[in-house]
Design goal:
This protein has helices at 8-16, 35-38, 42-46, 58-68, 72-85, 92-102, 106-119, 125-136, 140-156, 161-181, 185-198, 203-216, 220-236, 243-253, 257-270, 275-287, 291-304, 309-321, 325-338, 343-354, 359-375, 382-397, 401-415, 421-433, 437-448, 457-468. The chain is 72% helix and 0% strand.
Length: 470
């Protein structure tokens, strides 16, 4: 998915798995590093929970350092000391779980959450966190039970008003997510409205409320009310999506593609000097293979912000769609130089290099693809699977069939087949070449049933037809 990070609507789509037309083949927005883990500190951990961050929370910093060196027991003791000194902090095991999740140590983090419930069964934090974990795993009943319990306790919590508000916002947000999943729009509207009474400038909640109101709308006046909400939100915070962009995405969801296109075109005209709006329009146009529209807006974004990585990647993707491989190569190289560990830049660069006849470039493609697997080696993560399949595709194009098949099979096994559309085609072709036609067809069916637009869609359709007609 191409993620325009300024758009709270797209953040919502990621969280709630909402159906949006997306460019599944372009992972141009995935973070190139584990920066969130590297920058983790007591300040970043506690900034939303305490008003007066300072040296008195040094025990939390000690715990983070101890966890980085594998000293779990010592870290827990440091956090207990911090909690004893500062009663406004969360329970020690809850802080421990939060740090571990941020460090991507999932198993010990889950264990710490369970310990947090035992440690302080009347603290709401662990229940709400468990609700979030269950929600991400699509265990709706469990998530609802955890959020309900967490909200009940949060309403009674009085040790720290800032933390209380954060807990209640999280609980209402989680409950609203479940209501949205169940398409209970009236309940979702009520929950989001209550959330906004606590935190009125929460742009994600405002955008979600707009979506819910749109779902409940039956007249043009109702739609105008949604637009007015988005317009007010953008006026208060220019970092949020331009109102016409949000409306376009809602129209797209409801199957009104022409309305969506009209709103995107209007956004590009009325907010022409906003790089975020230009990128949003370019992304939408790419999703719909409106290449001229995509190019116009990506070029405008690059002119407004010459170092815009997203704009360079979009321009490269447009060139790749048009089979202008030299131009695509130049743009992806520039993006890679700007962000040397960016998954999308390296992936796309490897793909356009291996598709050229110059053997030196094809060798470079293998080097870039191998670099990706070194940077993103965890096949349990989407980034790792994308890197592995890209590596497999390059190997396949270079005639190393056995190694290519092994790389693809490992990635598919780890992720239960969850990969981007472009790489689904790559994997299917490799499996087909290895005689595994049933597995190849399954991948193609999953990919082609969606409306995903990707450069190799025609090739994927041809391969699918070849398998079915054999």
């Amino acid at each position: 998915m191409v993620d325009l990070r300024f758009s709270s609507f797209l953040s919502l789509a990621r969280r709630c798995a909402l159906p949006l037309a997306v460019v599944c083949w372009a992972i141009v927005s995935m973070s190139a590093t584990t920066a969130h883990a590297q920058q983790l500190s007591a300040e970043t951990l506690l900034q939303d929970l305490v008003d007066d961050y300072g040296p008195k929370y040094s025990d939390v910093d000690n715990a983070i350092d101890q966890l980085r060196s594998g000293r779990l027991a010592d870290a827990r003791e440091s956090l207990r000391t911090a909690r004893q000194k500062n009663a406004n902090l969360p329970p020690a095991n809850l802080m421990l779980a939060d740090i571990l999740f941020r460090l991507k140590q999932v198993q010990p983090a889950q264990g710490a959450l369970e310990e947090a419930v035992k440690e302080d069964p009347n603290d709401p934090g662990a229940y709400i966190y468990l609700g979030e974990v269950a929600l991400q795993s699509r265990r709706w009943t469990e998530a609802k039970a955890m959020y309900d319990k967490g909200l009940e306790l949060a309403q009674k919590y009085s040790a720290n008003n800032k933390r209380k508000n954060r807990l209640m916002v999280s609980a209402y947000s989680g409950q609203a997510s479940i209501a949205e999943m169940n398409e209970n729009w009236q309940l979702a509207k009520s929950l989001l409205t209550t959330l906004l009474q606590i935190e009125g400038d929460n742009s994600l909640a405002l955008t979600r409320l707009g979506r819910v109101m749109f779902k409940l709308s039956s007249t043009k006046d109702d739609e105008r009310e949604v637009y007015a909400l988005f317009k007010k939100m953008h006026a208060n915070d220019e970092k949020t999506a331009y109102p016409d962009v949000n409306m376009a995405l809602l129209y797209e969801q409801s199957g009104k593609s022409q309305n969506a296109k009209a709103m995107m075109e209007r956004a590009a005209t009325q907010d022409a000097n906003n790089v975020r709006t230009r990128l949003a329009v370019a992304k939408w146009a790419l999703d719909h293979e409106e290449l001229d529209m995509a190019k116009t807006n990506a070029e405008a974004a690059l002119k407004l912000e010459p170092r815009s990585l997203e704009a360079k990647l979009y321009m490269g993707l447009i060139a790749r769609f048009r089979n202008d491989l030299p131009t695509a190569e130049s743009l992806f190289k520039e993006a890679h130089l700007q962000s040397p560990t960016h998954l999308g830049a390296i992936t796309q660069l490897a793909l356009v290099l291996v598709d050229q006849s110059d053997e030196a470039k094809r060798t470079q493609a293998l080097e870039y693809a191998r670099l990706n697997t070194q940077l993103y080696s965890d096949l349990n993560e989407a980034t790792g699977r994308e890197a592995a399949v890209t590596f497999g595709w390059v190997l396949s194009k270079l005639g190393q069939t056995a190694a290519a098949t092994k790389a693809v099979q490992q990635a598919l096994t780890a992720g239960n087949g969850r990969i981007s559309a472009d790489n689904a085609y790559h994997a299917a072709q490799i499996l087909y070449d290895g005689g595994m036609t049933e597995a190849a067809q399954k991948l193609l069916d999953q990919t082609l049933q969606s409306e995903s637009v990707f450069p190799n869609r025609a090739a994927a359709e041809q391969l699918s037809a070849r398998i079915k007609n054999r």
